[in-house]
Design goal:
The structure holds two protein chains of two kinds.
Chain A (H helix, E strand, L loop, with lengths): L6 E3 L4 H11 L3 E4 L5 H6 L7 E4 L9 E4 L2 E5 L4 H6 L1 H6 L1 H8 L4 H4 L4 H6 L7 H8 L2 E5 L4 E5 L4 E3 L2 E2 L9 E5 L5 E8 L9 E10 L2 E10 L6 E2 L1 H7 L6 H13 L11 H23 L3
Parallel strand pairs in A: 1-3, 2-3
Antiparallel strand pairs in A: 4-5, 5-10, 6-7, 6-10, 8-9, 11-12, 12-13, 13-14
Helix pairs in contact in A: 9-10, 10-11
Chain B lengths: L2 E8 L2 E8 L4 H8 L18 E4 L2 E4 L12 E3 L12 H8 L9 H14 L5 H7 L10 H15 L1
Parallel strand pairs in B: 1-5
Antiparallel strand pairs in B: 1-2, 3-4, 3-5
Helix pairs in contact in B: 2-5, 3-5
The chains are: A alpha+beta, B alpha+beta.
Chain lengths: 289, 156
């Protein structure tokens, strides 16, 4: 399959890319790794008239901790995230997530930022970023916006990004002492989208949960932040009965549709089970185990 | 729509072509450069039959635009043999019967070649993980793993 006709642009700088997007507006799509956009174009699910390839813009492929924040540049690949020493040692939830996205060949090109900007509820990083309370940086024609991830996913394949904006950086607060996170995904086979997935992040102080973040994958039209379950967990002890109840509350926020991956009931049940497992693993990591 | 002049190093040789924006890398290789060792399997980023090395890393060439590889380095299965001598990975597939129908083999060998560049003595789990984006519909994975280990031993 060959994608429908379009015009390809390869700007060398961010201002050039923004100028092209300003010129073409919603006729254009940003191309980075291309591992979601190109398959969609081949299937005619997307038919942009212009592709603005940001792949040649230097200096956007970083993963670095700076001023108490982990910064992931627009061109950081999933494979780089998986291999990053700082990610493996300090943000294992991100390594968990990268390791289950598509397959190793796709991860050599696919970008973390693209995984968010695509707005697909089946993508894995959205849940993790919701659990971690990330922000994304999006320069546009006039100014630069910083968008909290909780306000980013606005609908099916729709995000808060304007067609004239580029997601250039993801910012994740550095993990405080006593914190831990984990991502759990159920997939039918390597490379498949999640039947369901759950990300959990816990900050534990003095034996009590100070703050919790929970995100769910592919159980609704958007990635879901399980706010009620997060609120329930605050102030509770990190123990099995508490996690079991949080799993039940989180699953009640799921609004999956039935498809080849399972029925509505099955997916909600998997969201519950995976949330409980992610919470337990997060608590183990928070305890340094 | 737009056409672009692409300069790309393929198997060590500088090549160029004028391509339409929408041309995929796999078609540039197979049709413009007549390098038909790169196969088209599923054409939907699943099977890995079209795997090539882009700047040394295995990628699925059905999901890369030809225009994107301007100025870059591509290795196809035709580039594994050097001066009439098979690469150890090719020898491994031959010695260990690492192929049945052979359709997945170019992609399997390129992914395994890249694995052996960074891991000199991979265990079965590591090999199976590395090739998890390459599907063998003959399900000949046992011998594929042996073939990669054969190549690894030969290179040590």
């Amino acid at each position: 399959m060959i994608p429908p006709s379009f015009d390809y642009h390869a700007p060398r700088t961010l201002p050039e890319a923004l100028a092209l997007l300003g010129q073409f507006g919603d006729e254009a799509k940003v191309l980075s790794g291309g591992q979601s956009l190109l398959p969609m174009m081949k299937l005619r699910l997307a038919q942009p008239a212009h592709l603005v390839d940001i792949g040649r813009i230097p200096g956007l492929d970083y993963i670095k901790e700076e001023g108490g924040v982990l910064k992931i540049g627009a061109l950081a690949r999933e494979a780089s995230l998986e291999a990053s020493e700082i990610v493996r040692s300090r943000y294992p939830i991100l390594a968990d997530t990268a390791a289950v996205i598509a397959d190793p060949l796709v991860r050599n090109l696919a970008t973390v930022a693209g995984n968010l900007a695509h707005g697909d509820p089946a993508n894995d990083h959205p849940a993790t970023m919701l659990a971690l309370g990330a922000e994304v940086v999006a320069p546009g024609p006039r100014d630069e916006r910083t968008i909290p991830i909780g306000q980013f996913f606005t609908g099916l394949f729709t995000t808060a990004l304007e067609p004239t904006e580029v997601l250039t950086e993801i910012r994740i607060p550095a993990p405080p002492p006593g914190s831990g996170g984990a991502y759990m995904k159920l997939e039918r086979k390597v490379g498949d989208f999640a039947t369901a997935g759950a990300a959990a992040f816990l900050v534990i102080k003095g034996g009590v949960i100070d703050r919790a973040g929970i995100g769910l994958t592919n159980v609704g039209p958007t990635p879901i932040k399980a706010r009620e379950a997060e609120t329930y967990l605050a102030g509770k002890k990190p123990e099995d009965a508490v996690f079991a109840e949080a799993g039940r509350i989180a699953a009640s926020a799921a609004k999956p549709g039935a498809d080849r991956r399972g029925s509505v009931e099955y997916k909600k049940e998997m969201a519950r089970v995976l949330t409980v497992r992610a919470l337990k693993k997060a608590a183990q990591r928070a305890a340094g185990r | 729509m737009g056409r672009h002049r692409v300069h790309v190093t393929v198997n060590g040789t500088a090549r160029e072509a004028e391509v339409e924006s929408r041309l995929l890398l796999v078609h540039l290789l197979r049709e413009d450069f007549r390098l038909t060792g790169t196969h088209i399997g599923c054409d939907t980023t699943h099977c890995g039959a079209c795997t090539v090395l882009l700047d040394g890393r295995p990628v699925k060439s059905c999901t890369v635009l030809a225009a994107q590889v301007d100025g870059r380095r591509v290795t196809t299965v035709e580039g594994l043999e050097k001066d009439g001598k098979l690469d150890p990975i090719q020898d491994g597939f031959m010695q260990e019967h690492g192929l049945q129908c052979g359709f997945c083999t170019p992609g399997m060998m390129l992914t395994s070649y890249a694995l052996l560049e960074r891991s000199k003595n991979p265990g079965e789990d590591e090999i199976r993980h590395a090739i998890s984006g390459n599907l063998c519909r003959c399900t000949g994975y046992v011998n594929i793993v042996k073939a990669v280990q054969h190549a690894a031993a030969k290179q040590r």
